[in-house]
Amino acid sequence: MKVLVSGVVHVDYGQIIVASDRDAGCDLHDAFTGQEGVGLCGGGIDGSLLLLTGLWVGGVGFTAELHDSRPELDEIWEEVVEVPFRPVSGETVLRQWNGAASWELGLEERDYRVRYCATAMDVGRSKNVREDDEPQTDDRYLLQFWPAALEPARLLKQTGRTAASSHNFATAPVG
Confidence band (pLDDT; 50, 70, 90) for 135? Predict the structure, then answer.
């Protein structure tokens, strides 16, 4: 296992982006297209992932990992989804929504399975905004990649209201 990112990542509008195409946008509706009730991690745009958080603005605890094969699921995580992902270039970055910071992930152009895990999303949502001089909220996030054949997005675990709202959004028709 290789840790790609570890620390505090700033979110705006409760969003973080993984992008392998500098020109690609990350529209909220397009990101969840075809995921049928799987919210939190939108993989509907080629080469991009849209990650949703409970906290609306501020820094959250965030870790991204690359594994050789499917990692065991740690039961500490309250919200868990998996989606397919394939970078469209040799340069894939995790970036803050506002573009102020990014982290190179070093992913190859191949098929990956992505697991996005969260805990205490409802705490982050109730806080809403965290100023830089305030203590970090309890919501934390884990993004795991491993090589795998493409398979549909799946909801593995959902316990909170914030995640439920995201999953409901991914089910709702656009229009």
Answer: confident
